[in-house]
């Protein structure tokens, strides 16, 4: 048959849409996808530890604190609600031993960490004595005098005045409060441990004692969320006036309590708002925040003062920094290799106590995969620089991603203006769905949400 009759490729007129919230992950946090990281590649992390760092690569530290007062029904993180103080002490000592192994390795290359992130779980679940022991131990292993940002995630109900003072005195610069919602009934039926009174009290005291940056997290689409309640949440947020607000759209991954209930009841659709409604709620929040002077700094974040309010952990990680990650189930990246630690408490502690790194799986991305990774992560900021990618990866993203860029442009979400490739607000609010268009074919996820 003559090629003159070959049909051109069919470009869908719109992105594939699934309206309802069904089970699965929506949020794209890394590339290639985690399912491609394998135990047989762990030796590649060992080799990376023995190499000097690539000049100019910043170094950050992430620590996972896997303890919570209660397990939220939408939670998909590795958390424990039943560990006593001896187990917690054992965990802290294991994390310090793990850091000590890394601290002696050539990949550090004399670098001083530039940012630290304590995530979870609930870092603020730890007592003041436990936090002092942990942070002072970390400071004795690696120099902290060039740390510009120390982020600490908190659950409001765990914060006493005494603990907040101690957290500030231990050097935390960015306090991140897991508020999620302001309505006590919604907090309760979603399994949150805190109540609205605790939010107000913790926030007021944190402000009073002068933390340099306070972020609050909200979730659009918790079980029983309504338009009226969401509008009230945004009104209260604006009244509080935090430095930044991070809003996630509710997703229901497989390992959540909500999904377990859906499975038991034979339901395919989660008992939360559909994607269109959740996007409309984030759209409303961003618009209201912009009216009072906030700037939209990423698909999930609004900041009060863009010049002053940085988020180094996100920006450096998304630009290829090394992240020395410690703790159970944590994800890191050193010397060009992705890795993840054991996801269960006992194997993690046992392996570290035996003097070994507790790494469970790893992957060395190719140069092209690193290009894709940085491109998809940075476009979550709303706009990327072509020159940045040309300099770093030797190719113009307009050429490397010609097809997906054209497709997303045809769908009405993307524009090109000189050096900048940008998403409009509609594109930004569904960025995690659009990112799959940039993936290599073997990594494409056929489940769209
Ligand atoms: S507080 Fe956070 S980490 Fe802990 S159970 Fe709830 S969602 Fe999960």
Kindly describe this structure.
The protein is α/β, with parallel strands linked by helices and 449 residues long. The chain has 2 domains: 281 residues, pyruvate-formate lyase- activating enzyme, CATH 3.80.30.20; 76 residues, Arc Repressor Mutant, subunit A (Orthogonal Bundle). It contains 17 helices and 15 strands. The protein has a 9-stranded mixed β-sheet. The radius of gyration is 22 Å and the shape is globular. The chain starts with 41 loop residues before the first helix and ends in a 15-residue tail after the last helix. The structure holds iron/sulfur cluster.
Keyword list:
pyruvate-formate lyase- activating enzyme, 449 residues, 17 helices, 9-stranded mixed β-sheet, 3-stranded antiparallel β-sheet, alpha/beta, 17% strand, binds iron/sulfur cluster, disordered N terminus, globular, 2 domains, Arc Repressor Mutant, subunit A
């Amino acid at each position: 048959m003559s090629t003159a009759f070959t049909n051109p490729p069919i470009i869908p007129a719109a992105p594939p849409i699934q309206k309802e919230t069904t089970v699965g992950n929506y949020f794209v946090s890394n590339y290639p996808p985690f399912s491609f990281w394998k135990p047989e590649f762990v030796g590649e992390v060992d080799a990376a530890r023995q190499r000097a760092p690539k000049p100019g690569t910043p170094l950050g530290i992430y620590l996972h604190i896997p303890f919570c007062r209660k397990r939220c029904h939408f939670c998909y993180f590795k958390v424990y609600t039943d560990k006593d103080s001896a187990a917690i002490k054992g965990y802290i000592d294991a994390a310090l031993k793990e850091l000590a192994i890394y601290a002696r390795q050539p990949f550090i290359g004399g670098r001083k960490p530039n940012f630290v992130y304590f995530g979870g779980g609930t870092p603020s679940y730890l007592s003041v004595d436990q936090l002092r022991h942990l942070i002072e131990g970390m400071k004795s292993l690696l120099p902290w005098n060039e740390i510009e940002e120390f982020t600490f995630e908190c659950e409001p109900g765990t914060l006493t005045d005494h603990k907040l003072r101690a957290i500030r005195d231990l050097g935390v610069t960015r306090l991140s409060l897991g508020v999620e919602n302001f309505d006590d009934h919604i907090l309760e039926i979603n399994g949150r441990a805190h109540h609205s009174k605790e939010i107000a009290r913790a926030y007021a005291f944190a402000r009073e004692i002068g933390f340099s940056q306070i972020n609050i997290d909200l979730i659009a689409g918790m079980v029983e969320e309504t338009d009226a309640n969401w509008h009230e949440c945004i009104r209260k947020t604006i009244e509080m006036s935090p430095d930044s607000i991070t809003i996630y759209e509710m997703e229901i991954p497989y390992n959540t309590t909500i999904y377990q209930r859906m499975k038991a009841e034979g339901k395919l659709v989660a008992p939360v708002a559909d994607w269109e409604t959740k996007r409309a709620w984030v759209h409303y929040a961003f618009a209201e925040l912009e009216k009072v002077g906030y700037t939209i700094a990423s698909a999930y974040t609004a900041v009060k003062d863009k010049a002053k309010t940085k988020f180094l952990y996100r920006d450096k990680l998304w630009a290829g920094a090394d992240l020395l990650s410690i703790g159970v189930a944590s994800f890191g990246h050193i010397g060009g290799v992705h890795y993840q630690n054991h996801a269960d408490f006992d194997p993690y502690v046992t392996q570290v106590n035996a003097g070994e790194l507790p790494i469970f799986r790893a992957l060395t991305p190719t140069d092209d995969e690193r290009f894709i990774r940085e491109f998809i992560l940075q476009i979550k900021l709303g706009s990327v620089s072509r020159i940045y990618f040309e300099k770093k990866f030797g190719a113009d993203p307009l050429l490397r991603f010609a097809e997906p860029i054209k497709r997303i442009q045809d769908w009405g979400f993307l524009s090109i203006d000189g050096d900048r490739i940008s998403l409009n607000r509609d594109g930004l609010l569904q960025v995690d769905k659009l990112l799959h268009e940039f993936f290599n074919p073997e990594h494409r996820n056929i489940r769209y949400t």
